[in-house]
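does this look right to u?? manganese (II) ion version
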Amino acid sequence: MNLMMNDVKEVFNLINSSQNICIAGHKAPDGDCIGSVMALYEFLKPFNKKLTVYIDGIIPFNYKSFVKEDVIAKEYDNNEFDLLFVLDCSDAERLGKFKDVLKNAKKSVCIDHHKTNESYADINIIDSSMSSTGELLYDILKISGRQLTKQIAEYIYIAILTDTGKFSYSNTTGKTHEKTAELIELGVDVAEIDNIVYNSKPSNVVKAFIECIGGIELYYDNKFGITSITKDILERNNVNMGDIDGVVEFIREIKEVEVSCVLKEYEEKNTKVSLRSKNDIDVSAVSVKFRGGGHARAAGFEIDDTVENTKKLLIETFKEQFGE
Ligand SMILES: [Mn+2]
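got this back:
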């Protein structure tokens, strides 16, 4: 195991000596973020500490039933903490409106699996060989020697399930499956979670999805596919950005596509870029150039420009990759 044992022991010492603990995930939360944050929250409950949870952004509809509304704090009120956990967050900016919490924590611990992680915390447990932050967190929690509950197992399972694309991406390892088997032994109902996370889309979300799919454009002999999720599409269908999932993965399903790209229009001049690679092209290297990050086959960045300009930029950027 590639875990830094001393760091993990130090983390448990810090938990014991702290009264006021904060758990934070990245903005625009996904399944790994929500699953990891909630798993750690459940794990820490019996320690009888004051727990605060920060996640910037709306919880997507399919994760709402896993998160009690009042658990997540709405705004950052300059609270100070003895101990801060930052999960699944490659850089401090990804904390969004809660990023000042890093300054207001006596000790901070970052647990993450992004290879581009900037090690911005006091203790950084980063392992890019892990499929998900949830998988790494599971290893850490097991070291505690405590019995993990079905509830914790469920949260970890959701983190792994969603970040591996249902155990289909190259980040899925034999170890991932071994740990998943343990989670199922702890009581996770695989079919029930599949129905909640994947088979529960409201019709307006599907209509918005279809509009996004209808906008796919292909370049460079169909090796590069790109589309946008615009504010227009969201408003017309009355859905939130985080509700539409799987567009970038859908583009990758096209046989010739090597790199798929989705542009998310958050503001008129703020676009988030999601990139996926099927084989050899390292999209995290491209993302780092634009001050983003991620993994070789799944990465992204944010840019203060319009969707149209960002699209032109991306098409131009991948020109050389495809030898045009
Ligand atoms: Mn993740």
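The longest helix spans residues 307-321. idk if thats expected tbh
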